[in-house]
Amino acid sequence: MCGRYVQVFTAEQVKKTLPAIIVPSSFKGVQNYNTSPTQNVFIVSEDSKPQLFETRWGLLPPWESDKKKTGLFNIRSETITEPWKQKPGYARFIGSILKEQRCLFLANGFYEWAEGSNPKQPYFIYSRKELEESNLMTLGGLSYEWVNKDTGEVFKTSGILTQPANELLKKVKHHRMPLIINEKYRNSWLNPEIDLGEIKQIVKQTKPSKEMNAYPVGKIGRENSPSYVMPSGETIFPEEETKINHHLSLLGMGGRRNNPR
């Protein structure tokens, strides 16, 4: 699953990651080290051209009556590739929005908690190339405009697709991970003209572990704090100390990490 992630970026970084995107002049950047469900997040979706939108994380299906509910902040990718294994109503709803309401979540990285540990150990997981080049990870998602049947209020909501863990996440002792859309597939994912077969092929892609890394961090609370990305131990895969410090500086964390190698 993906229950917390980091949004720390400027309009320039968004445009660098997705050169064709339209970024509203009102967007002045975001700095959220502890993005969680029901918070407002920034996504990219197609509206004649890729555009940056603000939405609420937690996709509300049409049968939901209360906008305060958490909603579907994670959506299993198997709902797309194996809909017959899911609850019929849920699978039909996901299938109905799949064609034209795909989106990309923008992230610097995400957190996962090791299963089986007590207390559970959180890890910060990131893409090496994107973080080194000051680009952003793009996570596959779906969006839906939920309508309050009593007031007519329209509420833009969204959820992140998840898939089985790759080898890195397994080393973190977690069994799921977000669907990471690599640069090669970003335009296709946003294109409303692609067919279901191509969508399924993209969903089946898993980002290779060698392109990612992770390190343990301290306890994560509810507030927004840059200290949450500060390492409390070694990276899963060996990485030079200078690169770790560079990663931290890009996330607004100057200086050295807590326990240098």
TrEMBL record:
<keyword id="KW-0378">Hydrolase</keyword>
<dbReference type="GO" id="GO:0008233">
    <property type="term" value="F:peptidase activity"/>
</dbReference>
<dbReference type="InterPro" id="IPR003738">
    <property type="entry name" value="SRAP"/>
</dbReference>
<dbReference type="InterPro" id="IPR036590">
    <property type="entry name" value="SRAP-like"/>
</dbReference>
<keyword id="KW-0238">DNA-binding</keyword>
<dbReference type="Pfam" id="PF02586">
    <property type="entry name" value="SRAP"/>
</dbReference>
<keyword id="KW-0227">DNA damage</keyword>
<comment type="similarity">
    <text>Belongs to the SOS response-associated peptidase family.</text>
</comment>
<keyword id="KW-0645">Protease</keyword>
<dbReference type="GO" id="GO:0016829">
    <property type="term" value="F:lyase activity"/>
</dbReference>
<keyword id="KW-0190">Covalent protein-DNA linkage</keyword>
<dbReference type="GO" id="GO:0106300">
    <property type="term" value="P:protein-DNA covalent cross-linking repair"/>
</dbReference>
<dbReference type="GO" id="GO:0003697">
    <property type="term" value="F:single-stranded DNA binding"/>
</dbReference>
<keyword id="KW-0456">Lyase</keyword>
<dbReference type="GO" id="GO:0006508">
    <property type="term" value="P:proteolysis"/>
</dbReference>
<protein>
    <recommendedName>
        <fullName>Abasic site processing protein</fullName>
        <ecNumber>3.4.-.-</ecNumber>
    </recommendedName>
</protein>
